[in-house]
């Protein structure tokens, strides 16, 4: 008789896929999130654009001396992402890792709507905006193509 191949359950396949995702996340880039920051997303994006793609040390220096309102909060978030990366990669040293800000994006958060008195008994609506920031820190050593592009930029 021909042996019938045993079919695995869908739930088992789902569990294996989920566990594989978790294993990949343990060794991948570090993600840090900051939610409900009470500044408008537009103002925060101006600061986020300054550090996108920069090396971690340079990004920390930029944020330290940036006079805008959201810079100290982004600096703290970047330090949190760095410590998350070091917690994931205990075998690597931070100095040798050559970390950079892989991606940073700012999304709009909730809007608090308030009323402000206006002339002739009217009221104007004031929207107090907030934002959510997501910061991804990774090492240059994982992808060789990015190292080549940064070396050519420094030579020019």
TrEMBL record:
<dbReference type="InterPro" id="IPR001063">
    <property type="entry name" value="Ribosomal_uL22"/>
</dbReference>
<keyword id="KW-0699">rRNA-binding</keyword>
<comment type="function">
    <text>The globular domain of the protein is located near the polypeptide exit tunnel on the outside of the subunit, while an extended beta-hairpin is found that lines the wall of the exit tunnel in the center of the 70S ribosome.</text>
</comment>
<dbReference type="InterPro" id="IPR047867">
    <property type="entry name" value="Ribosomal_uL22_bac/org-type"/>
</dbReference>
<comment type="function">
    <text>This protein binds specifically to 23S rRNA; its binding is stimulated by other ribosomal proteins, e.g., L4, L17, and L20. It is important during the early stages of 50S assembly. It makes multiple contacts with different domains of the 23S rRNA in the assembled 50S subunit and ribosome.</text>
</comment>
<comment type="similarity">
    <text>Belongs to the universal ribosomal protein uL22 family.</text>
</comment>
<keyword id="KW-0694">RNA-binding</keyword>
<dbReference type="Pfam" id="PF00237">
    <property type="entry name" value="Ribosomal_L22"/>
</dbReference>
<dbReference type="InterPro" id="IPR036394">
    <property type="entry name" value="Ribosomal_uL22_sf"/>
</dbReference>
<comment type="subunit">
    <text>Part of the 50S ribosomal subunit.</text>
</comment>
<protein>
    <recommendedName>
        <fullName>Large ribosomal subunit protein uL22</fullName>
    </recommendedName>
</protein>
<feature type="compositionally biased region" description="Basic and acidic residues">
    <location>
        <begin position="13"/>
        <end position="25"/>
    </location>
</feature>
<dbReference type="InterPro" id="IPR005727">
    <property type="entry name" value="Ribosomal_uL22_bac/chlpt-type"/>
</dbReference>
<keyword id="KW-0689">Ribosomal protein</keyword>
<dbReference type="GO" id="GO:0005840">
    <property type="term" value="C:ribosome"/>
</dbReference>
<feature type="region of interest" description="Disordered">
    <location>
        <begin position="1"/>
        <end position="38"/>
    </location>
</feature>
<keyword id="KW-0687">Ribonucleoprotein</keyword>
């Amino acid at each position: 008789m021909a042996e019938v191949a045993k079919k695995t359950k869908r739930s088992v396949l789902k569990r294996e896929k989920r566990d594989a995702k978790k294993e990949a996340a343990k060794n991948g880039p570090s993600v840090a999130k900051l939610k409900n920051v009470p500044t408008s997303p537009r103002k925060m994006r101006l600061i986020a654009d300054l550090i996108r793609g920069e090396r971690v040390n340079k990004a920390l220096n930029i944020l330290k001396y940036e006079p805008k309102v959201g810079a100290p909060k982004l600096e703290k978030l970047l330090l949190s992402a760095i410590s998350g990366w070091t917690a994931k990669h205990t075998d690597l040293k931070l100095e040798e890792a050559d970390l950079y800000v892989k991606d940073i994006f700012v999304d709009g958060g909730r809007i608090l709507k308030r009323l402000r008195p206006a002339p002739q008994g009217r009221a104007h609506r004031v929207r107090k905006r907030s934002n959510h920031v997501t910061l991804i820190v990774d090492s240059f050593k994982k992808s060789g193509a990015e190292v080549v592009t940064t070396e050519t930029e420094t030579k020019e």
